[in-house]
UniProtKB/TrEMBL annotation:
It comes from Virgisporangium aurantiacum. Residues 306-327 are annotated as: Disordered. Residues 429-631 form the Peptidase S9 prolyl oligopeptidase catalytic domain. GO terms for biological process: proteolysis. This is Peptidase S9. Pfam families: Peptidase_S9 (PF00326). Gene3D superfamilies: alpha/beta hydrolase, TolB, C-terminal domain. InterPro entries: 6-blade_b-propeller_TolB-like, AB_hydrolase_fold, Peptidase_S9_cat. It comes from the Bacteria. Keywords: Hydrolase.
Length: 633
């Protein structure tokens, strides 16, 4: 029997972004490493024969970062992005299935952000920033590189690549707006285009607009503003003409979950098609007829068709479905999914199921004994229905309890734990279960999978009812004899890191805590985090909301630092722009001031997620050692 090591976790390879050919016979996908060595993540494009038991072969040979496979309408060509010519500068490449040759199609000096082959076999739409000028080069050489905020900000613009000539043109459309997504109408007509005022993550997603673009005439038409964070465009025909749908946050709160919005182009009538559903849409997928919708449904996933009367359930699946791709008819699909004890792989099948696995990218995990995973259902103190997961120590049963229990809170908070394989590079349930811990994965209110109101209930109230939701679950596991009340730990990253920092300021029940990239002061987070306006919605106020105390002070862990007695491990990326490093420094200085035992670890060159192999290994090993020190499994 093989034991689970940190190397086995971080050295794995995972499939990404499957793309099913229109004829349904072939599937392109990217194979990516879990960790990175050096400055660039090396990935590969693979091709699978859907009809031949999923036989796969690598179709690129160079060391490069490769991404975004896209098929031509006739299924004869696979386009993708690769930086094989110059690392860090992706260009469009073409794999011709006839002779297997790969050809570079662009040499755009700024690199290509995204691409979409059109129904016209001679055209590919590109998203790319402006190329640098000679003046830019001179300024860089002279170190005249002062950044004036708001000036010369990079924007992705729509451009057209003519495959006959190799020429790239830039239609004069959308002004100075940043283009984020596009989708062509299934009959080869115009493109739906989503734009933002800028690429700034705090400001841009709240300034979305929808447009139509005619690639033949080069003309555009504005369809008006859309809700925040629009994505996942899809067209479909109806009795009253063409409809255009997308996912976006439910207004007016910037934390109310996603909805499917349906714009009838005749009459410009806009409807929220998922307003009253007890689940949350995560993907909208275009077909020639009605689009498919993936719903986060509690711990599991529902796949539905968006009919005129509302979503019609086609199939239900354990865990998650991600990166859905279909044939134009929608009769065959490919998706990333797994099981409780197997990581996500590419699966294919009809929308009604069943789905058949056609890749196996982690065979090295076979033979490892993982902890038994089981769903939990319970009620909050106010009667709200909640769910979560319990993972028992590997090789042990509930009859051998009580166990040391580590509660890991998910990020977001608009995210969820699904009933899938819980092994990742960050401290995860199976990583701790194989070291002798029981692990509780709660889904408190504010998360995904239970509808809009469930998600919106934490706006301005983080750390309130969601905290008691978590405590209720822990108390349930203690009452059942699963958890040892004298050996409790708590952990989390991002918003989960906030909850871990909040927990130790509210109670001394926990013997150890891990705060990974966590928020400690909501006012500072709103002022400096790259999603500041979203953080305002969660924390409830800003520092410029007049003379304090402010509402966000009452829900900031730093306000309760004098109460902390629990040993805390703090981990943070030095270059994190989502939750800046200052949040961790603030907690570290407070704990040092009050004499609280803690360890503060900064990972150079890392952002909100830790990517370098050695750093991932350190995160895993250090986390286990920390809980081993205080909880003694």
């Amino acid at each position: 029997m093989t034991g689970l090591t940190a190397e086995l976790v971080v050295d794995g390879r995972v499939p990404q972004t499957p793309a099913l050919a229109p004829n349904g016979h072939l599937l392109g996908y990217v194979l990516a490493s879990t960790s990175r060595i050096g400055d660039h993540l090396d990935t590969e494009v693979w091709l699978a024969d859907v009809d031949d038991a999923g036989a796969s072969r690598r179709v690129t040979a160079d060391t490069a970062t490769e991404s975004r496979p896209r098929w031509s309408v006739d299924s004869g060509t696979l386009f993708f992005l690769s930086d094989r010519a110059e690392r860090g500068i992706p260009q469009v490449h073409r794999l011709a299935l006839g002779d297997g040759t790969v050809t570079g199609l662009t040499g755009w000096r700024a690199g290509i952000v995204d691409h979409l082959p059109l129904a016209d076999p001679n055209l590919v739409v590109l998203l790319a920033e402006d190329e640098p000028t000679e003046q830019d080069a001179r300024r860089a050489q002279d170190r005249d590189d002062a950044v004036v905020v708001g000036e010369r900000e990079p924007r992705a613009r729509l451009r057209l690549l003519d495959l006959r000539t190799g020429r790239i043109t830039t239609p004069d459309v959308f002004g100075d707006r940043h283009v984020v997504e596009l989708r062509q109408r299934p009959d080869g007509g115009p493109l739906a285009v989503l734009t933002q005022a800028s690429a700034d993550k705090d400001y841009g997603p709240r300034t979305g607009q929808l447009h139509l673009f005619d690639p033949t005439a080069g003309s555009a038409e504005d369809l008006g503003p859309v809700s925040a964070e629009p994505r996942s465009l899809a067209w479909w025909p109806a009795e009253d003409g063409w409809h255009l749908g997308y996912l976006a946050l439910t207004p007016p709160v910037l934390h109310a979950g996603t909805a499917v919005f349906d714009l009838a182009l005749a009459g410009r009538v806009l409807r929220n098609r998922t307003a009253d559903l007890p689940m949350c849409p995560t993907e909208l997928c275009q077909t020639d007829t009605a689009p498919l919708v993936v719903f986060a449904d509690g711990l599991n996933t529902t796949l539905a068709r968006l009919d005129p009367t509302g979503p019609t359930t086609l199939s239900q699946h354990p865990g998650r479905l991600d990166d859905l791709t279909t044939t134009p008819t929608g009769e065959k699909l490919a998706v990333l999914t797994g099981t409780r004890y197997q990581p996500a792989n590419v699966h294919v099948g009809p929308p009604t199921g069943p789905l058949r696995r056609i890749t196996d990218t982690r065979p090295e995990l076979e033979g490892i004994t993982f902890g038994t995973q089981q769903p939990l259902a319970y009620r909050a103190a106010d009667g709200l229905d909640l769910d979560g997961l319990l993972v028992l120590p590997a090789g042990q049963t509930a009859s051998e309890s009580p166990f040391p229990l580590v509660t890991i809170v998910h990020g977001g908070p608009y995210d969820r734990y699904a009933d899938r394989f819980q092994l990742f590079w960050f401290p995860s349930a199976q990583w701790l279960a194989t070291a002798g811990y029981a692990v509780f994965l709660p889904n408190p209110r504010g998360g995904q999978g239970h509808g809009h109101q469930f998600a919106a209930s934490v706006a301005g109230r983080v750390g309130r009812e969601e905290w008691t939701d978590i405590l209720t679950g822990i108390d349930l596991l203690i009452a059942q004899g699963i958890a040892d009340p004298d050996r409790l730990g708590i952990a989390g990253g991002s918003h989960g890191g906030f909850m871990a920092a909040w927990a130790v300021g509210q109670t001394e029940r926990f013997r150890a805590a891990l705060v990974n990239a966590g928020i400690t002061d909501w006012g500072m987070q709103a002022a400096t985090g790259e999603y500041g306006q979203y953080d305002v919605a969660l924390g409830g106020s800003t520092g410029w909301s007049g003379i304090g105390p402010h509402p966000h002070d009452a829900v900031s862990p730093i306000s309760f630092a004098s109460r902390i007695r629990t040993p805390v491990l703090i981990q943070h990326g030095a270059e994190d722009t989502n939750v800046p490093l200052g949040q961790a420094v603030y907690l570290h200085r407070a704990l040092r001031h009050f004499g609280v035992e803690h360890e503060f670890v900064i990972y150079p060159r890392e952002g909100h997620s830790i990517r370098e192999r050695n750093h991932q290994l350190d995160v895993l090993r250090r986390t286990r050692a920390w809980f081993d020190r205080w909880l003694h499994p």
